[in-house]
């Protein structure tokens, strides 16, 4: 599932591709991927310029000229491709937004969606989300105060979107490896030094993820050399050597989520 660095990468790249352009045509291949009837969606989105693209947690918001918003959540398996019709991937397209001869294809939206909402409705969707962890206002002190109220396994806490916004299964393992903390350790058992280390690891890993273009396998467009440059330290590397101590990385399950960690480094 795309997480904060992947959506931030999409935001930056799409901003340079479609920012300010008019949506010239729309095709809906799967009506369940949108939230209103096709004719209403088409009427309110067609011929609208994409004013800005913003990110909140794992969402993107396409703000349209008429004040409406398109709220995107890719969920599990969703991705996008931008290009000409002849260049599109050989995959089922759920939604297509056209910008003249170039198109933005939404692919793999079996669970994901592109909803047409007002700004107020978008804010309502975001109401339960936790703080943006890369926001300058989210300080070390703020993190300590937030974590001191929590219980349960640290991995489960990191991926809870109502606690911290944008971290998912993959980067939570990366963060905990970097902080040298076991994913099944109870958060109320962490001392202040461990919590401080965890905060700095969140900052380091997510910023590194953004700098390297996240881990999405598929490029956004032909010639895209940014998307997918992130190389995992531990996630999905079961049986491989830890880059810090060379012990074998193991896989376990925490709250029904596959979890990867180094049993030697992470205590």
From TrEMBL:
SUPFAM superfamilies, alphabetized: Glucocorticoid receptor-like (DNA-binding domain), N-terminal domain of MutM-like DNA repair proteins, S13-like H2TH domain
Domain Formamidopyrimidine-DNA glycosylase catalytic, first and last residues per copy: 2-106
User: Coiled coil where?
Assistant: none
Gene3D superfamilies given in the database record? 1.10.8.50, MutM-like, N-terminal
Q: Which Pfam families match?
A: Fapy_DNA_glyco, H2TH
FPG-type domain location: 233-267
Signal peptide range in chain numbering: none
Give a yes or no for keyword Repressor in this entry: no
Give the record's family classification: Belongs to the FPG family.
Name of the protein this chain belongs to: DNA-formamidopyrimidine glycosylase family protein
């Amino acid at each position: 599932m795309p997480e904060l660095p992947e959506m931030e990468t999409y935001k930056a790249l799409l901003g340079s591709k479609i920012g300010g352009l008019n949506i010239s045509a729309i095709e809906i291949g799967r009506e369940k991927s949108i939230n209103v009837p096709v004719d209403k969606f088409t009427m309110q989105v067609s011929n609208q310029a994409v004013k800005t693209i913003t990110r909140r947690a794992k969402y993107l918001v396409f703000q349209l000229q008429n004040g409406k918003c398109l709220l995107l959540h890719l969920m599990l398996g969703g991705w996008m491709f931008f290009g000409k019709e002849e260049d599109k991937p050989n995959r089922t397209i759920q939604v297509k937004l056209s910008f003249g001869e170039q198109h933005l294809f939404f692919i793999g939206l079996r669970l994901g969606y592109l909803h047409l909402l007002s700004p107020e409705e978008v804010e309502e969707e975001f109401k339960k989300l936790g703080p943006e962890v890369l926001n300058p206002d989210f300080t070390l002190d703020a993190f300590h105060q937030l974590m001191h109220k929590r219980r349960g396994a640290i991995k489960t806490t990191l991926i809870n979107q109502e606690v911290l916004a944008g971290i998912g299964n993959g980067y939570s393992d990366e963060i905990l490896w970097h902080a040298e903390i076991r994913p099944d350790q109870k958060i109320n058992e962490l001392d202040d030094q461990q919590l401080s280390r965890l905060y700095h690891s969140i900052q380091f890993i997510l910023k590194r993820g953004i700098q390297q273009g996240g881990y999405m396998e598929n490029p956004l467009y032909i010639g895209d050399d940014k998307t997918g440059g992130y190389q995992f330290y531990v996630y999905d590397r079961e049986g491989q050597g830890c880059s810090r101590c060379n012990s074998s990385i193991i896989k376990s399950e925490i709250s029904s989520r596959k979890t990867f960690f180094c049993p030697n480094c992470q205590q």
